[in-house]
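Appendix B. Worked example

We walk through a single record from start to finish. Start with the input: the chain for Ribosome biogenesis GTPase A, Lusitaniella coriacea LEGE 07157, length 283.
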Amino acid sequence: MSSPPIQWYPGHIAKAERQLKEQLKRVDVVLEVLDARIPLASQHPDVARWISHKPKVLVLNRVDAIPASLRREWTIWFESQGQMPYFTNAKQGKGIQAVAKAARGVKAEIDRRRRDRGMRPRSVRAVVIGMPNVGKSALINRLVGRKTVKSERRAGVTRQLHWVRISDSLDLLDAPGVIPWRLDNQTDALKLAICEDIGAAAYDNQIVAAAFIDLLVQVGFAEVLKSRYQLDPLSRTGEEYLYDLAHMSYRGDLERVAMLLLNDFRKGSMGAIPLEFPPQESN
Ligand SMILES: Nc1nc2c(ncn2[C@@H]2O[C@H](COP(=O)(O)OP(=O)(O)OP(=O)(O)O)[C@@H](O)[C@H]2O)c(=O)[nH]1
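Next comes the structure step. The output line below is what the pipeline stores for this chain.
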């Protein structure tokens, strides 16, 4: 196989970035959604600059896809970075009220600033932002309590702008802000592709599936592959694994095997498998 370029189009990225900045201008607080399986790769380094001084609520969605013990580890790590993570399962509506409460929590500060400028207090305005497919629409629908935004298992499907009232003191933009992919770092890009947080048009399934196998071995989940597909990944590269599995059980159909592996992971059929762990502090 050739080198693993995950494609992106500078024009699209510039447009997405413009739209996102437009949305950010209108709000008081930002709800940033990360993928709990890859909280670091799904966080864009420029978000802090784009948001500037506005308060942010950090949401780690898909908490059902990671072990409970890891949730505690991430909480400790994010707190050490001065951030409080809120864990949600937006599909099943878990952890939603805590996120709404955290967003409403900035009201006193916003009212004070408005009063200083002779303005009347008003409800807090919020927007949900995040990489494609991390669960932004599902979170919005849960916060609103009904279906306002289409939530699909495909990256890049939401647009349009309206305010929806969440409570007396909280209004939400019903269209999430889509953060343009961060592809300067191919390791992160591969993780985003594995988790389907990048549109499928941007990558080659076989390259991504091979990288996924290598990554599973690296993060200590080789056994999952061995027991599920009766083929041990420890003695092979990801690329060889894909090839051997395809020839063993799928008539050499590499694409089919690549999709099978990726879909099994994405649907949670392999169990709760995280692809990242909190960095160890080196002091
Ligand atoms: N297992 C699980 N699935 C989730 C969760 N949140 C969302 N999903 C699913 O993930 C898929 C993507 O969710 P969306 O809400 O459409 O994601 P999005 O970020 O709005 O996607 P774009 O509009 O493409 O940017 C859907 O199939 C959801 O049902 C979650 O917490 N756990």
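Two observations about the output. Residues 204-266 form one domain. The mean pLDDT is 90.
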